[in-house]
Amino acid sequence: MEKFVIMGGRKLAGTIRVSGAKNAALPILAATLLTGTVSVLHEVPLLKDVRCMLELLQYLGAKVTVQGKTVTIDTSTATSQRVSEDLMRKMRASNLVLGPLLSRFHCAKVSYPGGCAIGSRPMDLHLKGFRQMGAEITEKYGYIMARVPGGLRGAEIHLDFPSVGATENIMMAAVLARGRTIIRNPAREPEIVDLQNYLNLAGAKIKGAGTDVIKIDGVEELKPVEHTIIPDRIEAGTHMVAAAVTRGDVTLTNVIPEHLEAVTAKLREAGVTVETGDDWIRVRGGGELRAVDIKTLPYPGFPTDMQAQMMVLAAVARGTSIISESIFENRFKHVDELRRMGADIKIEGRVAVVKGVSHLSGAYLEASDLRAGAALVIAGLAAEDVTVIENIEHIDRGYENLEHKYSALGARIIRVNGGERYFDKR
Length: 426
Ligand code: EPZ
What we know:
Layout: E1 2-7, E2 13-17, H1 22-35, E3 38-42, H2 48-59, E4 63-67, E5 70-74, H3 85-90, H4 98-105, E6 107-111, H5 124-132, E7 136-140, E8 143-147, E9 156-158, H6 164-175, E10 180-184, H7 190-201, E11 205-207, E12 213-217, E13 225-228, H8 233-245, E14 249-253, H9 261-269, E15 273-276, E16 280-284, E17 294-295, H10 307-315, E18 320-324, H11 334-340, E19 344-348, E20 351-355, E21 364-366, H12 370-382, E22 386-390, H13 393-396, H14 402-407, E23 412-417
Parallel strand pairs: 2-14, 3-13, 9-10, 17-18, 21-22
Antiparallel strand pairs: 1-22, 1-23, 3-5, 4-5, 6-8, 7-8, 10-12, 11-12, 14-16, 15-16, 18-20, 19-20
Helix pairs in contact: 1-2, 1-4, 1-7, 4-6, 5-6, 6-7, 8-10, 8-12, 10-12
This protein binds ligand EPZ.
């Protein structure tokens, strides 16, 4: 099992280019199943989760070629609608093939995607939308069987919660359905706008992504398309916090600053200097960090995917921060690990009370999920001595070559294979 070994205490300084957005690439890769032809996608981040989705598409019969950050997918040869269980369980986002398979082939059989450390993550809103569009859905032995012999028909769907995945799955299903589908109370994340843009380039008729009503008029077929994935706002936010807690001076390129407004506002409130341009953000963490209160919300509120990273800043800020996690029921797995480093954090249900301490100390830690793992890297960079992080495969799911990106900014971080324990402070 690979580990990160970090010798903290160094300021991050320099320029870092942000990769394409994982959470835009995954639904767009699933959407290629709708076209039945060739899609050329640029700025695809070659992460574990993306490779898993490419493996899934190949399992379904698609042809995939990868050249650097450009991926070409031909789904004319995709036939099977049955997705293998082990592939499905590898990654939650595999559930995003259900809508495209149902829309194009009128039937699909997928296994329940793996829940993960942050919560149960059901699919009831996805399935409720498909049923409203005429699909017969049965759930048995951990499988979802969906069929709609006559093809999906447009429907007016109100989401009980602005679920990102449900919005994307229903939007994709509606593209080849008969008639108009209206999604009310959809998620408004930028990744959904990027999915709309990809699909409209392929000939779909979608309006309103990013607003509180999305309208999709079904079409007969789609055409070949070339598209560039938007930058990853969560990767960018992660680097912004790393610059802040190491008191560094880092410029991010290939970013869309308006996608990060909630994060930028919080960092400025905490005393961090943040300057923004058209496609760059400069973060300087010179002064004292101040406590901030955070409540995670659907976009454009503060993103749940940045909660763990901001908790590291709160852990070393002056004062007490209240951090409320309203999106997932179990997204505080990083707290125990931060406590090992000397953080003073109390959990009351979905609320964390974080009392800032003067500094964090290095420790032997375990990553439990993608963003918690990224938070531990940030904490290791800020700590005065050595930190070892196990289970870094979680981090590789969402960050491309993170150790190289931070080493280029002056951090001392290396990836090592299994082997001996560097020290055991437990
Ligand atoms: C997407 O997950 C992201 N993943 C997550 O990012 C992100 O944390 C999440 O949206 C929220 O922003 C991808 O885009 C691949 P949801 P998703 O459906 O679609 C409940 C990362 O770190 N819910 O908006 O699964 C659900 O349990 C990952 O990159 C239902 O109850 O999120 C959760 O509590 C982690 N029923 C809440 O809604 C449903 O049918 C938000 O889930 C669907 C969701």
